[in-house]
C-alpha cells in the first residue's frame, strides 16, 4: 500500500524479504534464527546493492519500516549516515529488548523457543540482544526521523516509541489515536499524510 502511494508521488520503493522474520519469509522462514545481527545484515546487503542501481537517487535515500522492519531501519541506519538521508519508523519493535532481558534472566530455565510479538523465536535472539543496547545504537542516527505509533497497539506498547522519541536527536513524533499494530482505513490515511508531508520536506527533488 505504501509503495503504491509513493509511486504516485514519483518515489521509487524497494521492498525486500527479511530472513527469519516470519513464517511467510521467502528466503528463510526459520524464525528461531532471527536476531538483531541477522536483520542488520539483511538490510545492509540491500543498502550496499542499492548503490549500484541506476534508478536510485543516492542523495535522497530514506529507510522506512514498520514493527520489526522499523527496528531494523533504526539500528542499521547509524552505520550508513553518509548515505541514508532520513528514517520513517512505524511502531518499531523495541519491545524485544525487554523481552530478551526477561528471558535471559531465566537462566537454564529459559525455553528453547518462545513467542514475542506473535512470532516464534529462539535463543539466538536473546543471546544477541542482551549484549546489544538497541536504543543506544538507534540514537546514533542524528538525521531526521519520522516516528509514528498507535496508542492502542497491543503488540508493541507505545511507551517503547516514547522512549525512542526522547533519545533521538531529530524526531517528528505522531500518535495515531486508537491505532493498532498495522494501520488500516482512516488510520492508514492519517499516517500516510504524515509520511507524505515528511517526504515532501526531505526529498529535495520533489
The main sheet orders its strands as 1-2-5-6
- Give the radius of gyration: 17 Å
Counting helices, strands and paired strands, the structural category is alpha/beta
DSSP strand (E) fraction? 15-25%
What distance lies between the first and last C-alpha atoms, to the nearest angstrom?
A: 20 Å
- Average pLDDT value? 93
Shape designation: globular
Instruction: Give a short account of the largest sheet.
Output: 4 strands, parallel
Would you report the number of β strands? 6
How much helicity do the residues have? 25-40%
What string gives the helices and strands in order?
A: HHEHEHEEHHEHEH
> What's the number of helices?
8
> Low-confidence segments, ≥5 residues, pLDDT <50?
none
Question: How would you describe this structure to a colleague?
Answer:
This protein is of the alpha/beta class and 206 residues long. Helices cover 39% and strands 17% of the residues. It contains eight helices and six strands. The protein has helices at 2-8, 36-50, 68-76, 95-104, 123-129, 134-138, 159-167, 185-202, and strands at 61-66, 84-90, 113-116, 119-122, 144-150, 171-176. The chain starts with a helix and ends with a helix.
What is the topological layout?
Blueprint: H1 2-8, H2 36-50, E1 61-66, H3 68-76, E2 84-90, H4 95-104, E3 113-116, E4 119-122, H5 123-129, H6 134-138, E5 144-150, H7 159-167, E6 171-176, H8 185-202
Helix pairs in contact: 2-3, 4-5
Amino acid at each position: 500500500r505504501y509503495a503504491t502511494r509513493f509511486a504516485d508521488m514519483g518515489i521509487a520503493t524497494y521492498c525486500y524479504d527479511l530472513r527469519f522474520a516470519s513464517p511467510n519469509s521467502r528466503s528463510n522462514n526459520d524464525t528461531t534464527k532471527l536476531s538483531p545481527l541477522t536483520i542488520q545484515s539483511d538490510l545492509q546487503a540491500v543498502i550496499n546493492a542499492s548503490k549500484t542501481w541506476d534508478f536510485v537517487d543516492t542523495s535522497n535515500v530514506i529507510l522506512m519500516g514498520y514493527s520489526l522492519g522499523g527496528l531494523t531501519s533504526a539500528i542499521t541506519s547509524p552505520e550508513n549516515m553518509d548515505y541514508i538521508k532520513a528514517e520513517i519508523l512505524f511502531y518499531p519493535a523495541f519491545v524485544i529488548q525487554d523481552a530478551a532481558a526477561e528471558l535471559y534472566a531465566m537462566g537454564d530455565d529459559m525455553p528453547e523457543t518462545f513467542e514475542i510479538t506473535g512470532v516464534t523465536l529462539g535463543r539466538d535472539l536473546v543471546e544477541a540482544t542482551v549484549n546489544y543496547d538497541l536504543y543506544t545504537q538507534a540514537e546514533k542516527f542524528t538525521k531526521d526521523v519520522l516516528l509514528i505509533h498507535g496508542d492502542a497497539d497491543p503488540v508493541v506498547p507505545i511507551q517503547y516509541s516514547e522512549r525512542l522519541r526522547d533519545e533521538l536527536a531529530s524526531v517528528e513524533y505522531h500518535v495515531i489515536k486508537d491505532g493498532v499494530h498495522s494501520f488500516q482505513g482512516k488510520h492508514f490515511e492519517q499516517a500516510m499524510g504524515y509520511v507524505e508531508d515528511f517526504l515532501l520536506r526531505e526529498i529535495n527533488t520533489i
